[in-house]
Amino acid sequence: MPRESFLSRRCGPSRPLNSTIAALAFLALAPAPAKPAFELVQPELFGVTGGMPNAWADFDNDGDLDEFVGFRGRPNRLYRQERGRFEDVAAAVGLADNVETRAVSWGDFDGDGNVDLYVGFIGANARNKLYRNDGDGRHFTDVTAAAGLALEGVSRQASWIDYDNDGDLDLFGAFRDRANRLLRNDGGRFTDVTAETGIGDTRKSVGAVWFDVDADGDLDLFVANQNGDTNGLFRNDGGRFTDVAREWGVEAPRESVEFGGVGPAVADADGDGLFDLFVANYGPSALYRNEQNRRFVDATRAAGLFFAQHATTPSWGDYDNDGRPDLYVAGFLVNVTHYPDHLFHNTRRRDGTARFEDVLPPLVNEHDGSHGVQWVDFDGDGALDLALSNNDPAGGHFLFRNLLEPDRARASLAVDVVDAGGRHTKAGTEVRVYAAGTRKLIATGLVDTGGGYCSQNVMPVHLGTGGAKRVDVEVTAMGKGGRRVTRVAGVDARTATRPLRVRVAR
Question: At 264, which helix (H) or strand (E)?
Fold first, then answer.
């Protein structure tokens, strides 16, 4: 069972702690090799073609993470993990739909402690499905109609988020061919609140991510739009949304209809504790630096991330546990095998600005992604592994084990954020790790709200600790009273091989 903190209290603004001794204890490990090393896991199982979105969660509550993969051209698969080995159980549990699947999101919509699954299709008259997990993953039941859901269209990102801070998960859906939708959860049934909230973007949406952009205590929404459409940044003002993309510097006017946004992902790239935004585009992709939760500034060229390709999916993950998030970006062009992917190693400068170097290993390049990208520590050794999916005729949906040396692999912390009832309903919660007894920030992470190509995971937040022996963990959740901070002090960052579970109040 995870270690758990019940310290859930309302806290005021953080105050610096004067602890020189503790600050000096934060010593970085020897520099990691620039070139990461991976090995394939069960390639005979993960080698079939057609994979699109992939998402991870412990659907059977046995303590390890399992993977769902949506396909084009074959039935969807659900891989149950048993101590590092995977088996497809989709047909046995009722999830083997054979309709082209472009969106998949895990979330406990009914608050019973079992993660449920939303699946979005793009076939003609193919209504999206909500599957209720009937307990420890033995069977899933289609409850779409009973829950009051009637979503169909060219589905893209679906996100389980609590936009109104009432303690349950609401559902957002992005679409390429119609207005985006927001459905409020009212005791397990859903009410369409798209019109009254102003969130129904009619542009051609692909990727979306939710986070508290302006630090006011509720979740805001960034939407990447395709086919020449500009992006949207929808600020949440008490449940009413306003598009502020232009004022915040992320609208991204397009040069032609060939250009457009595909996948967004957020992380603290420069170590200042604020969430920056990377958007994979058709055309030049972009890194936007967060300026004090008031606007974003284009930092793409300064960070060494300028490239103009058909990029589809970004995913942040600290693969070497140095406390700096690295960035995988998948690329895709029809009928082009191994269209360029990138693995950008974050080599932050002394002045704090981020600088990236492409270190994609040959093995990953040979088994690259086109859409799905997920960083996940599936084997629990402390090092982030990599799951890719590729829908090319010669592609697969491969899983790579990170071969980080053991001492460095253990220099990490997994933080499992749950609500007061122990349920996974806190998507968008922020997690920060400090050197113990100080305000020296080591790493920042976010409970997943959407990414890795039109998907959403339910898994612990992974944070590299860079060699610190002990750390303080600070969790900031959204609730009725605004931003609520929970702190856990003096966590051993060297032997923390199991997730640290932190409960946060509503």
Answer: strand 260-267
